[in-house]
Design a protein that fits this description.
By secondary structure, the chain is mainly α. 57% of the residues lie in helices and 11% in strands. It has a three-stranded antiparallel sheet with strand order 1-3-2.
Length: 123
């Protein structure tokens, strides 16, 4: 992590130099525990390839459950379950038109998160 301490290892930890300025900087920059938990929960939602595929469909258009199910060759109930997960994570939003509910990306952050992930794995 740093050039400060070349001989650091787990066995010698009690003998290592402590760098209070570095430690304080790290502590100051660390988000609150609740924020870290929420971030970890958000990334868990991206840990399912079906949900990723659903988001890719929603990159192209606002769709109803039936169109989403057909485009991914899945059942409506399976899609509905995953949409609930995506909505709960605030990645997808819905609007009702008559009896039909249409789904779309909640905001541009969703595309950014996916694009950044793709860029990272393609490096």
């Amino acid at each position: 992590m740093s050039d400060h301490c070349h001989s650091c290892d787990a066995e010698a930890c009690e003998y290592m130099h402590v760098h209070p300025d570095l430690i304080e900087k790290v502590r100051q920059g660390m988000p609150a525990e609740e924020t870290l938990y929420d971030l970890a929960e958000l990334y868990k939602v991206f840990g399912d390839s079906t949900r990723i595929k659903m988001l890719y469909v929603l990159f192209e258009a606002e769709v109803c459950v039936c169109d989403l199910a057909q485009s991914l060759n899945m059942t409506v109930s399976a899609i509905s379950h995953q949409l609930r997960v995506l909505k709960q994570a605030r990645l997808v939003k819905s609007r009702r038109e008559g009896k039909t509910v249409f789904y779309s990306l909640a905001d541009d952050h969703v595309r950014t998160i996916i694009d950044q992930g793709i860029s990272h794995i393609e490096e």
